[in-house]
Amino acid sequence: MIDPSATVHPSAVIEDGAVIGAGCTIGAFALIGSDVTLAANVEVRNHGVVTGWTSIGEGTVVHPFAVVGGPPQDLKYRGAKTQLIVGKNNRIREGATLNTGTEDGGGVTRVGDNCLCMTGAHVGHDVQVGNNVIMANQAALAGHCQIADDVIIGGLSGIHQWVRIGRGAIIGAVTMVTADVLPHALIQGPRGELAGLNLVGLKRRGVSRDDINALRVALQSMKDGDGSFQDRVRRIAEENSGSAYVRELTDFVLGATDRGYLTP
Question: Which residue among 92, 164, 172, 227 is least crowded, i.e. fewest CB within 10 A of its CB?
Fold first, then answer.
């Protein structure tokens, strides 16, 4: 079904069953698959591909040669009908690839609102991406990763499967991340080392000096002291005087993980 207000180039291919919302624009030689749903004002530019069981939220733009909704790059995938859900006002740039989920991994890949996937970025199967996430050129998320809101991933960086990245963290360019990243952390170096707090991001979001200082003290306490890393984090959680940012940090560490942590 194509809304009468949509603009579709004569050379575009829209398969039977696709739903094209009001005000959408489909460019030359674009392909829209039969199980695709585009909300209002989505733009798929020339040569863009949206396929699979995929829904895209209002105002999102898919640039040329991006492939949104392709099947998982997983040898265990057996062809089940799995899904990709993309939110509102995203920018999916040239050559980016976003895959659907797998039957063994929950079946759904999600991308939130107001995200930017730059040229060649990859969102793998069953990945869960929050809002306001930026993936720079050629950054790649392997399967099952969880990326919280306000994360920035530098160009040519790779995130290992099952890794969690906490809210507000920043990953430097050309970095391989193989363990969970604490909220508001700064990660850099070829093998992804914790280099402190993402102070620029915290200040840009208007976080108070008291909360930033509390996070600094918490990180130092995680590094020093008796007992295991988890023991030190539990003590920080018990002693926290009320900083929501420190509570977010300790809750993240004490949550379930498959990868361990990049520690101070």
Answer: 227
- Choosing from 48, 87, 105, 143, the catalytic residue is 143
Catalytic pick from 35, 74, 126, 180? Answer: 126
Tell me the CATH class for 7-144: mainly beta
Q: What is this structure's pTM?
A: 0.95
143 is catalytic: yes
All structural domains of the chain with their residue ranges:
7-144, 203-254
Axis-axis angle for helices 244-254, 209-223 (nearest 10): 30
Of the residues 63, 122, 125, 184, only one is catalytic, namely 125
Q: Which long-range contacts (CB under 8 A, 24 or more apart) does 157-161 make?
A: 160/259, 161/124
94-126 pLDDT tens trace: 999 999 999 999 999 999 999 999 999 999 999
Is residue 125 part of the annotated active site? The answer reads: yes
